């Protein structure tokens, strides 16, 4: 009996492997989610930081080379090309493009907390306190465009009187010219400052510090923040790349399967061999050998199965040989007994003839039993002579010979042939028809059906007799077994008829089974090989 895929050992092993990997994935995902909730800034130390730095360099370079009045256009173009929202923030609350409808409070806190590089603060002039009034330089004239917004060490720490929101209408901003850093002093690189999730799930926000123009009185560059917003954590690959994690997961799965699959397949293949071997033993075929090259517990089990099959084969063969020898040895004295009874019939008085005839009947029954034992022994001995045989003529010939008192109906597909031993199959079919005549009685109806099912032929013998108790069905084909209600000598027979049927059918490479149809009666199904 073959087990379904979901109940196979290989499916269970793969299922446990998948469950193991799923648990690992859930633990890993939980730890990752916990880390991301505790702080996304840790991502800035890896590829995310490199991506944000590159974005700051590209956008910053283009903004430095573009008049401030065209910055909204530049930011809008980059936003559309990357599928994100970009804007530039300058203190105190100046947004260049107005791309955001509203900024979460925690994001604004991070923006205001952003500090300029330490190197720029060191370039600021010393404080005016403590210097003689005559040594204090005059305050620089106010510049249009609010370019003195980044004079302080903190973004947005400049004096309130110097903070403006942009150049007055109609005036040219002198700082809109391209900025060139002082000779010999490289332009500071862009740097990611923060990565945070907006409150109430309002997207994911990143801040990138990049240089703009010289701070007044220092010659050093001013800095601004490029603010980037995305609806999800991936940020179209800018914030968090999910594909490497997916590929990594598949790689882990592939490596795990590569390590586990050979082990699981080797076990399941060998267990499959053991299963097929034990199924053959259960069906009465003891010519079984299991490959025993393994040195583990399964290998020892294979050795045990092979030795068990050999011992069973010797036991069954010895039992049949013993029965055949006993039956053969009984034939000679039984023949002498029957000859003596025939002689005595001539001399025994009339009043003792009935007793003598009873003894002769017993001797005849013993002779028939011995014949059946010999037939049973011969059916399983020797090598069957298998050849292609037409089925319909064989069935009709057996039915005519053994079923004269039965009402037989034939349902046979035309041109059916089987690869069988004609002598053994004829004996098996004859016993089945005779069994119907004995147990269902004269005048019983017998239906013989034959059809082809793939590489097998199915032949069914169904009668309208009393049937057999369900608990007796598994043992009907055992030698000398008779159901309880058939144990009398008149109706039960010797108990070898169906045993001979199974032996003959299995010698032809087929299978036989018995059942009680739902509509009543008794049915025997025979399966034979076509080739």
Automatic annotation (TrEMBL):
Catalytic activity field: ATP + protein L-histidine = ADP + protein N-phospho-L-histidine
Protein name as it appears in the record: histidine kinase
Membrane among keywords: yes
One GO term describing the cellular component: plasma membrane
Segments of this protein annotated with the region Disordered: 115-190
Membrane-related topology note: Multi-pass membrane protein
Domain HAMP positions: 265-317
GO molecular function, one term: ATP binding
Class in the EC hierarchy, top level: transferase
Keyword terms, alphabetized: ATP-binding, Cell membrane, Kinase, Membrane, Nucleotide-binding, Phosphoprotein, Transferase, Transmembrane, Transmembrane helix
Pfam families cross-referenced by the UniProt entry: HAMP, HATPase_c, HisKA
Subcellular location, record wording: Cell membrane
Glycoprotein among keywords: no
Enzyme Commission (EC) number: 2.7.13.3
Transmembrane portions of the chain: 245-267
Compositionally biased spans, kind Pro residues: 124-143
Histidine kinase domain: residues covered: 325-531
Species name: Luteolibacter ambystomatis
InterPro entries noted in UniProt: 2C_sensor_his_kinase, HAMP_dom, HATPase_C_sf, HATPase_dom, His_kinase_dom, HisK_dim/P_dom, HisK_dim/P_sf, Sig_transdc_His_kin-like_C
